[in-house]
Amino acid sequence: MMKTYSQILRNEDGGILALAAVTLTSMLAITAFAIDLGQVYVAKQRAQNVCDAAANAGAWELAANLSNPSTAQTNATSKANQAAIDNNSVANKWQISKVSDNSYGVDVTFPSGTINNDAGQPVTVQSGRAITAKGYVKVNYAFAGLLGLNSSNIQAKATTVISSETTTTGTLLAPLAASNTTIFGDGAGWPGVKFGQQVTLKTNRWQSDFIGAGNFGAVILPGQGNGASAFRDGLAGNYTTPITLITDPPTWIDTKPGNMVGPTRQGLNDRLGKETDPRFTNDATAWNNWLAAYNSTTEMFPFTWRIMIVPVVQDPVSPGNGKSQAEVVGLAGFFIESADNKGTVVGRFLQGIKSGDTIRWIFPNNDTPTTTENILEIRTIS
Length: 382
Prior knowledge:
The structure is a single chain. This protein has two domains: about 15-160, no CATH class; about 165-380, no CATH class. The chain is about 30% helix and about 25% strand. It is built from seven helices and 19 strands. A hairpin with a 2-residue loop joins strand 17 and strand 18 (about 360). It is elongated, with a radius of gyration of 30 Å.
């Protein structure tokens, strides 16, 4: 005898309910598991972001005080942990803590030697020029708790290194060079330029300590052309294409012989003519006004068209005459104070630290002039 449709339904009610119960339980388990995985992902990102911020903040402090490693590391540790605490305050659910003692903040170390970056490539780091921030975020599980795993510490770390800057934009980079002996000294009596000391970057006479006879400091930057108009536009800051000058292996650039009086005057007049801040339009007061404009909250000086970046080139052992090639060994900031009608450019070298597209101009050691370094670059490598 065949069962009716209603009989079949009645006989299978129990099986359907059991299947529904199993299905619902499985769905809840999958949902809970997904929530746990989501929490792990958020915690990992949170921990990594805070470690990145902490390492970057500490690196600024290291770079600003390279001449005093002990003080630099103490201050860098403090800055890194302050950055971590500041980040904690905006995301209380995802507090980052030190691995060493579980207190809020990050563990800070200062590695040196060979460090592997995220791509597994070795990076050589000088002592005192790297900082690592390490911490964790605690995750309380939903589903995993049923399996005996109630929580875990999701760790992250970031290492930021300090090196010489290799890339800048044409707007800042100017086709005037400074010799390495002018800036760093010659080891035979000339100590080098002090940070903030007034110097002549370009004179209207050949400088015996620069490259060779017939050269006055003008150079031809990659991609800018070798004509007088290209030189003038470079000084005016009319190029916006990023230009890479590498120190290892070194970039070689051509010198541009001749005093270039007209193009120098015209280019710098055009550059300074772009200045819209009245504090920096007067040659006699621009420097002191710029110093007074320091913002202690952001720890930055304001932008001004008076600042340019110039390549630092190696003085050759045997200087030649006329056009030659110069080896780029670094980049330096320079504040233009005046440019006269004879092609003489006077100003002051600056210490700069670059992170991303931002350059922070600084006075190391509480505004005391110190030996100038190349512009430094901060990079998070892992």
